[in-house]
Specification:
single chain; 355 residues; alpha/beta; TIM Barrel; three-stranded parallel sheet; 15 helices
């Protein structure tokens, strides 16, 4: 039975990326008209590739603690979110769910993903001009995950799927995940990769102390590790049609990828089987994409210099308040043409997600 509008408002809860901190989402000003982005006299559709939500009924299957201050976004109702999007000039959000189910049994995972994907597609269908969704899959069971992606795309109409930066401690480049990657390549879906943090470092205390380093450093570090393995272990070579968007500007890799080129030159006998290209080439060749969560025009200019403008899409991380000004960031970054800004603001995401 389809979800009613009232049920949809409670079936989907919006959450952020914070770990270990209570978060308050400030309400936007009331009755604000949707901010429009105009470039060269044309109204531009802006698409946020990085925004979060959760399905409480699905989370309850594995007793995921929805009420934990580190997870629950109190007061982040649909009305609040729409008002925030309007104020920020975001026309469409692509909703993703950070994986919390990678240790679930096969039966639990099957039920959880079914509820989660069906609820998400119902919600987006009820608000088609403002939301699209990334499907979810139980990667710890790779064959099941491949089936889940196929069902999500062919039966539910999803154009993308979300994954974590690792799977219960296993690297995404592990060959046992090849069935999942093969299915994503076959179906042509965009994979949104969001880190879960480098939890294996936390017992050592290296990320303790001040600065919320488990998130500030841990999240982009996991993305850096995941992308590096996908390059060096040959996953991107094996599946050349894959399209992966890495959150938070791809972590630290785009800022220091030339060292990955250098290790091949300097220590070719210690690298293992060599990738088909230099690691820096994978940043530009159409397999890897990145969001704009790098905070300053200079940082975005540098990211674009390393990847090319066609690999970049705006992301806000809503409702976690890392940034509220991604449209301004793109508009104020030097050296971009009008067409390049249009692509970053929404054109590239629209193409990849069929919007």
């Amino acid at each position: 039975m389809p979800l009613t509008a009232d049920l949809l408002a409670t079936a989907l809860t919006f959450v952020g990326c914070a770990l270990g901190a209570t978060i308050a989402v400030p309400p936007p000003t009331a009755a604000a008209r949707r901010r429009e982005t105009i470039i060269n006299g044309k109204r531009i559709k802006t698409i946020d590739i990085h925004a979060h939500c959760i399905v409480p009924k699905a989370a309850a299957i594995v007793k995921h603690p929805l009420e934990a201050p580190a997870l629950m976004m109190q007061g982040a109702t649909l009305a609040t979110r729409l008002a925030a999007m309007d104020a920020q000039g975001i026309d469409v959000e692509a909703l993703s769910i950070n994986p919390f189910w990678y240790k679930a049994s096969k039966d639990e995972a099957a039920e959880l993903i079914k509820i989660q994907n069906e609820t998400l597609v119902e919600f987006c269908s009820a608000n088609p001009d403002r939301f699209v969704g990334f499907a979810t899959a139980a990667l710890q069971h790779p064959e099941l995950a491949a089936e889940q992606v196929e069902y999500a795309v062919k039966k539910l109409g999803f154009k993308g799927v979300g994954v974590g930066g690792s799977v219960a401690g296993e690297e995404l480049a592990n060959p046992r995940f090849h069935p999942f990657w093969a299915k994503c390549e076959e179906l042509g879906v965009l994979v949104f990769m969001h880190p879960l943090g480098t939890r294996e470092l936390e017992p050592s205390g290296r990320l303790g102390g001040s600065g919320l380093l488990t998130n500030t450093i841990g999240n982009p570090l996991e993305t850096t590790i995941a992308l590096s393995h996908l390059i060096f272990e040959g996953t991107l070579d094996r599946f050349p049609g894959l399209k992966i968007c890495a959150a938070h500007g791809g972590g630290f890799l785009p800022s220091y990828a030339n060292r990955s080129d250098a290790v091949i030159r300097c220590f070719p006998d210690k690298v293992g089987p060599l990738p088909k290209k230099n690691p820096t080439a994978y940043l530009r060749d159409g397999q890897l994409f990145f969001d704009t969560i790098v905070f300053t025009p200079e940082a975005l200019r540098h990211l674009i210099a390393e990847t090319g403008p066609g690999q970049i899409m705006i992301g806000t991380d809503y409702p976690f308040p890392w940034t509220h000004t991604e449209v301004e960031l793109v508009m104020s970054t030097p050296g971009l043409t009008d067409d390049e800004r249009i692509g970053i603001l929404g054109g590239t995401a629209a193409r990849l997600l069929g919007i």
